[in-house]
Every structure is written in C-alpha cells, then in structure tokens.
Amino acid sequence: MSDYDFDLFVIGAGSGGVRASRVAAAHGAKVAVAEEYRVGGTCVIRGCVPKKLLIYGAHFAEDLKDARRFGWNVPDCGFEWKVLRDNVLAEVDRLEGLYKNTLESHKVEMIPERATITGPHSVKLSGGREVTAKYILISTGAWPVVPDLEGAEHGITSNEAFHLEDAPKRIVIVGGGYIANEFAGIFHQLGSHVTIVNRSSVLLRGYDEQIRDRLLQISTMKGIQFRFNAEMERIEKNADGTLCIHFKSGDPIPCDTVMFATGRKPHVEGLGLESADVELDDKGAIKVDEYSRTSCESIYAVGDVTDRLQLTPVAIREGHAFADTVFGDNPRTVDYACVPSAVFSHPPLAGVGLTEAQAKNKLGTVKVYTSDFRPMKNVLAGRDERALYKMVVDATTNRVVGLHMIGPDAPEILQAAAIAVKAGLTKQQFDDTVALHPSMAEELVLLK
Ligand SMILES: Cc1cc2nc3c(=O)[nH]c(=O)nc-3n(C[C@H](O)[C@H](O)[C@H](O)COP(=O)(O)OP(=O)(O)OC[C@H]3O[C@@H](n4cnc5c(N)ncnc54)[C@H](O)[C@@H]3O)c2cc1C
C-alpha cells in the first residue's frame, strides 16, 4: 500500500498533462488530473485546433475568387461568421470528448476543479478536498499577457476571439508575434479592416528576416495595415460601443475590437509554489532540469509553464519523457535541436534550424540558396504573390543547417523537409534527390 492517495497528481489537462497522465497510467501508476477549465487545454480548446479551422474557413475567400480563373462560375458569396464559429466550437467539443475518453480508458481520475499546491506531496482542490501524491506534475500552460493600459479591459485576447458574436468590421491587433499575424490573416480574409499595432519595428522575432519581410510585403499588399514603433496610451470606449486607441504620438485609431496578442506568460499565479519551494526563473517560468524536475524533488513541470519552447508537440514530448522517466524506468530527455515551427498566416511561413543571421553568428561562413518564385496556381489565378524558399548551409561541412519558407502549404512541406535537416543531410544529398514535378516542394532539390 502506498502512503499517498495517488502516485501522480497532474495539475492541468492540456497537451503536456494529458500525455503525461495517460503514459504514467499505462506504466501502472495511479493517476489523477485536475483541470479548472476544459480537458484538452489551450491547443484543443482555444489554440492550435480552432485557430487552424478558422484559417481554413478564411482561406475560402481567396479560393472562391481564384476558382473563377479556373473556370468555375462562382456567384458572389456571402459569409456567415456564426456558422463557422459554431461549427468550429462543435468540433472542439467533439475533441474534448475524445480526450476525456482517453483519460477514462486509462483509468485516470479526472477532477474538474482548480488545484493548488500545499506542500511537496499535497494539493488542495477548489472544492475543498485535499489529496496527497508521491509526485506532482505542473502542466498549467501559459496565459495571455495584457498590457497595463488605461482601458485595456475593453480589449480581448485570443481566448475570446473564438467566441465573438460577429466578425469585427474594424479590428486592431496589438503585437507582432505569430498569434497576431495569424489572426490578422483570418479577420482580413473574413472581410474585417485589420491594423496590426506593434511596439517595435520587428514582426515574428526568431524567424528568418527575409521570410518575415516577405510576409510583411504580402500582408501590406493584401490590405492589412501596420503601425510600428507605436506606444499606446489608452483605449477609449465610445457611447455607441466602438473603441478608439490613443497613442503617445500619432493619430488615434478608431475600431470595433482590440485584440491583444502581446505574449503569453507561464501560468503560475496562485499555484502555491512557495509551499513546496518550487523556484521560478527571472522570466517567471518554472525552473526545471533536463528531466523536467523542479527545485522540489517530488514536483515536475512540463510545457508552456516552463517556457522552453511554447509549442504543443514540445509539451507532449516533455510530458511523455517525464512519464517514461519517473514511471517507466526509462530516463529520457527531450531534444530541442531543429524543432520546426510555423506561422499560419496568409500565406503561411515555416522554418527549421538556424536562420541566416544565427548561422553566420554560430558558424562564421555559410552559403545561402534561395528560390523566389510565383507558384503555378498563383500564376493562373492572376495572383501576384511570390513564394520564397531559403536554405542555409554550413560552408565547411556542406550540411543544411536551416530551411525557411513562405508560400502555399509551407508548413506541410517544411515538416517533411525538417526530417532531412534534423538528420544532418548535406546540400548535395538534397540535390541528389530527383525533383517531384510539378510541385512547389521540388524547389528544395533544385536550389542554385
Ligand atoms: C491562439 C493560439 C494558437 C496556438 N497555435 C499553436 C500552433 O499552431 N502550434 C503549436 O504547436 N502551438 C500552438 N499554440 C501553443 C500551444 O497551444 C501550447 O504550446 C500548448 O497548449 C502548451 O501545452 P501545455 O500542456 O503546456 O498547457 P495547456 O495546453 O495550456 O494546458 C494547461 C491547462 O492547465 C489548466 N490549468 C491551469 N492552472 C490550473 C490549476 N491551478 N488547476 C487546474 N487546472 C489548471 C488550464 O485550464 C489548461 O487547460 C497556440 C496557442 C495559442 C494561444
């Protein structure tokens, strides 16, 4: 008989928490998971999945127009936000059900309550019950940051964007990261007038500069407006419900909705970390070692709350490695090298490995190959939008150290190519592969 109620108590049933619970239970552990909102976490409920479905929905605006050039008689089509929104939310409900089934079939006890740590082995639930566990896993994710600004309460974050009553006529999106650019693409395609307001002059920090510049150029061409180096002063709500953003300098911007996409901070507030001496780093993330163990021996943390790489597949891997390490007698760490990522903007972009600037800093001499082309489909559609593929190669070893692209289906193509970059293949090995013609991806083996 164990001295504890559970072998493992997981706080947060998101990407990392669900995977860790399921795998630990499969290894024979007695597991409980507390979730204060909905099973599935950010990715399934208000992140990757509903966002991608909105992106699919939004893309029809261009597809329907292009279809005419391909011979289809497309009448002027109307769009109903509520139909898309409700269908997306119904799909989210379905997926939440699947996640619950998985936990149930692994005999994981699901507790729909907020949990707070009260000691190295104890947790208090919002309903009042206190439980003990040999190990505790913190997988509470991250939470949108809203700037401290007069009138900020009139704005929304991505959390609320999925539930809007209507697609806004005029939306201002504050921020320059992937969430800002993705929602800018969505709302623009759905007919909103979109302005991105950014504190600096840089969009999508961390992605290759040429690729980012191309997105800015295409977005501007499509009609998305940008205001860079903008310092907001306050948001005013007018009597008719519309908003007006005032800046420290420059003209105010009137709009109907303001959406903050100004970063996500580790979700640790009120979690009781001090009761178990769980330490945070200087950015407020839970400090962990390579096995995801915190400064308290019996407490581990995975996913966004540790702010290593805020991506779903990373949280899932961390949760899986934790469960194998602690309950599967198979100590495993996660390899963070060459993790591919994408921005599902219009058009999407994706990258893996080092950007040109990073490679120059790290390796000294690099060779860069680019292909700047108009995809065949865009040519026939009369769409003046060019794709850009870029390969960064270590000049000494000829190994491909980075691959970056913007254009239709870039994330789909990059996922496959990332295997080759991760495997350390050389430019020559790319070139040795015969092109698959006609495709956009063939550019990868034809770079000169
Ligand atoms: C709009 C948006 C789009 C995104 N798109 C992508 C994408 O395209 N690709 C990608 O890889 N990633 C994307 N992400 C990021 C991705 O969603 C996260 O990296 C991932 O969900 C992190 O998983 P996690 O397990 O760390 O936390 P989460 O999935 O956030 O789960 C944490 C859970 O803990 C619960 N919780 C918190 N505190 C408590 C408590 N005290 N008690 C009980 N429960 C608690 C929360 O309710 C939540 O359900 C996106 C995020 C957002 C916001």
3D architecture notes:
The structure is a single chain. With 448 residues, the protein is α/β, with parallel strands linked by helices. It has three domains: 6-143 and 265-327, FAD/NAD(P)-binding domain, CATH 3.50.50.60; 152-262, FAD/NAD(P)-binding domain; 347-445, 2-Layer Sandwich (Enolase-like, domain 1), CATH 3.30.390.30. The protein is 32% helix and 23% strand. It contains twelve helices and 22 strands. It has helices spanning 15-26, 41-46, 48-69, 81-105, 158-161, 178-189, 209-222, 312-327, 356-363, 376-381, 410-422, 427-432; strands spanning 6-11, 31-34, 109-111, 115-119, 122-125, 130-138, 142-144, 156-157, 170-174, 193-197, 225-227, 232-237, 243-247, 253-255, 257-260, 264-266, 299-301, 341-343, 349-353, 366-373, 387-394, 400-406. Strands 1, 2, 3, 4, 5, 6 and 17 form a seven-stranded mixed beta sheet that branches. Strands 8-15-9-10-11 form a five-stranded parallel beta sheet. Strand 4 and strand 5 (122-125) form a beta hairpin. It is globular, with a radius of gyration of 24 Å. The termini are far apart. The model has no long low-confidence stretch (mean pLDDT 97). The structure holds flavin-adenine dinucleotide. Flavin-adenine dinucleotide (FAD) binds next to helix 1, helix 2, helix 3 and helix 8. Flavin-adenine dinucleotide binds at residues 11-17, 34-37, 41-43, 47-48, 51, 114-115, 139-141, 158, 179, 267, 271, 303-305, 310-313, 315.
